[in-house]
Structure formats: structure tokens, C-alpha cells
Amino acid sequence: MQSDNISAQVTREDVPLNSDKQISKCEKYFGGSKFINVSFGTLTVVITIALLLQIHYGDYQVVPHGSVATDSVECSEIGTTILKRGGNAVDAAIASTFCLSVFAPHTTGLDADGQMLLYNHRTRTHATLVDFSDLPISPHLPRLVLGLAYSHRKYGYLPWKELIQPSIEFARNGFLVSKVLVQAIHQEKIEQFFPNIGVDNTLKANKLAETLETIANFTEAQLDTFVADEHSPVDTEAYRFKFKNYNVFLPNVPSIGPMLAIVMHEFEKLNFTAEDLMKTLFYYKLVELTRIVYGDMHLKYKFFEGASTNVAVVDKDESYVSLVSGLTSLFGSGEMTNSGYFMNGKANGIRSSHLPIIIVDSLHICGRRIVLGANNIALASQVVFNLLIGNKNASESIEGPRFHMDPNGAIGLEGSHLPFFSADISRNLQYLTKTQLVINEPYEAINVVEKIGDTLSSHSDSRGGGIASRFRR
Description:
This protein is 35% helix and 21% strand. By secondary structure, it is an alpha+beta fold. It has a single domain, classed as Glutamine Phosphoribosylpyrophosphate, subunit 1, domain 1, CATH 3.60.20. Strands 1-21-2-11-12-3-4-7 form an eight-stranded antiparallel β-sheet, with helices on one face. It has a six-stranded antiparallel β-sheet with strand order 8-9-14-15-19-20. The N terminus is likely disordered. InterPro entries: GGT_peptidase, GGT_ssub_C, Ntn_hydrolases_N.
């Protein structure tokens, strides 16, 4: 394991991280003038052939760097700290999610359900999904912890305790309360659990800190026992389909993932361009198609949206992780346990609509690679189309205006997030529904990490109040 005093450049959000001195495999692949100069220079035919073989088989030689995007700057930075210590993308996602159970108890917690999507771009094999959406109650560990413990046992690298310790310290010593958490507390009217709380107040969660410390001190042998049999998450190959020149990986059935694929397949046939994203017809068709899928697939009887948060990670070894966890509603059942976390609400036999998503260029190994997560088809499709049809960058795609659709097909527009839709688009979207809905904060957030060649960018949705973190050695 590497020490904490690693020399590293750490930045936030959209300051690109790129190679200054080392030449990566991706740079060799795209750097036309460099390639010509070298090819006709002093390199021998043997070296040239070796280079071509590396390009063909994808033997990466990249500058080690990574990024984590979450709904909390502290949780994003915990994730990149884990990466700097030698952890992989799974380790970072686990550590960041434990952190979110402290900073964002309105959207996730130790009893939350969730899904983790994993993909390694070096091997370019199928993505893997770890699904802990439907686990029974365990006498040993809450459901989210079962999912994270299983993921750590099978895919993690650093010691289990090391991934939880930063969250213990924040819970015990106190953390700054976000505007989004305050909004959720007032909306759900559960001020009794957070008396006299305000934005930027320091909140301590001593009972939760004790619970996290107990969990951190379980041995690997104990964790193996806890996640056995019916308490073991479902580990399967993810669903993959092609959209334009991209491979898109999603959760497979019985999740909502294949339904998003239907929307994307049908929308692709309409041949919209980047310019069309500014036009009313684009959103009219998207609403129309999404409504058809919601209705024909009877989604409101199969999936609930609830509240969720997502962690997006890219590590130095080209491993990508999207982890979405959540509760049946803000603060779940609204009942806090003696262990300091909120119990999830009853799902009544239906599943959550979590959508971890990984997208990679299918033609160029150093092309665009995107990691994100969403909570339903309507929100996911808008951001994905901004990225893939609009060719927008991470920030533009995430921060753009979004409509919301409830399970019955009613359309709502965000009342306070800028920028707004144009007057013409807003008018027509409202015309599509008999009830004109204004969606009030807090809003569902979508976070993204994107890589093109060796250039890494990332963005945490301002709706969730987070800031992404990145580093380069």
C-alpha cells in the first residue's frame, strides 16, 4: 500500500487532467503528427510493429490518474484519497458510499438498496452488475453494507476498515450540513431528528459513528459469513447494447435497464442531431416515447423511483464503477434506528428504478468513455442524449434543464434550477400534460466521470450539492 504523502496533483470538477511528459498509448494512437515524425525517424521497423501490436491489443501506457464524482465534495475527496493510496475503483466507490451515508441520509443510508456496475476498459470484456436491491433483512448487517461487503470481498483491494474509517471520523467529529439536506429535512418534516439545524451548521452523528466502527472492525471471515446464502447480492453480466457508435452497459432484467435501452433504440431511429436539442420537437418526441414505454411496460407497478444518490469512479487502471444506492423516499421510512441510521421504507414487492450506466466508444479504444448514474428512465435519457447526440461535455450535459415524469406520465419542470428551458419548449412540455407541475428542490442529481484519450473530466450535479474530485501523480 502506498503512503499518504504521495506527490499528487488534486483538482476539482472540469480542469482537465492530461499527460504533460509521458506519452500514453492513447496519445500515440491519436497523435498523427507525432506518429509520422517517429515513424520516419530513427525507430526501427521492429519497434514500429511492436507499437502497432500494442495499439491493436490495447496495452495501455497511461499516466496514473482517476476521478470520483458524488453528491458531496468530502465524499468525492475520500474516494480519490483511496485511489491515491493504491485502491481500485471498487474501493473508492465503497468508501465514497459509506461517506454519503453520513453526509446524505436523505438519499441513502446503511439500510439502502443499490446496484454497482463494473467495467474494465483494458480487457474490454462484458461489464458486471452487483445487485443488492432485493436482499432480505439480515441479523448481522444492514442491506447496503451487505452489498458493499460482498463487492469488497470479490473486487476490492484495500483493507475493509480503511474504506470506512474516514466516514467514522466525519460522523464522530462533525460535518458541515448541506443546503440539500436542510431542504429534505423541512420537506419531510422530520426536524425532530435534526433540531436547530441550518446550512453550514456542524452536525455530529455519534450513534452512526459507533455503528460504522463496529462494521469496520468485522474480520474478513465474519464478512464472508454475513454475505452468504440468501444475503449474498446477485452478481451477473450486465446488459449491453449498441447506440450509434457506443456500447452501453446497464443493469439487466429484472431491472429497469432494458427499458432505457428501448427508449434509446427507438429514439436513435429519429436521427436527431446536436442542433435538434434546442428544438421543441426533440423534447416532444422524447416525452411521447418515454410515456409509451412507461405505459406499455406498466413500470409504475414494477418499479419505484424513491430517492437515490450515485457515485461515478474511474481509476488509473481503466476500471470504471457506477454505484447507485437509495431509499424508497427521502429518509426512507422516516424511522431512525438506535444505531443512528434511517430504516428504508417498504417496497411492497416492487424494485427500485436505479440506473448505473457505463458508455464506451465501440470503434476507438481511446475514444469517449462515460460513467454516470440516474434514478429513472426520463432523467437518464435526457443526460445521455445530451452527451451522445448533443456531443456536450460533462458539465453542460448534467447542468442543462431537465423535465421530470411521474409514473402516470405527468410532466414537471424544475422551478429553481438554472438554466431553464426556452419559453417555447417549456410551453409545449406543459401542454403535454393536463396538470402543470412545478418540481421543487431537492432535485435528483446525476454525477458523471468522462474520459477521452487521456483527458479526464468529471462533474457533480449542482442539484445534489456535490463537487467532483480528481488527481494525477
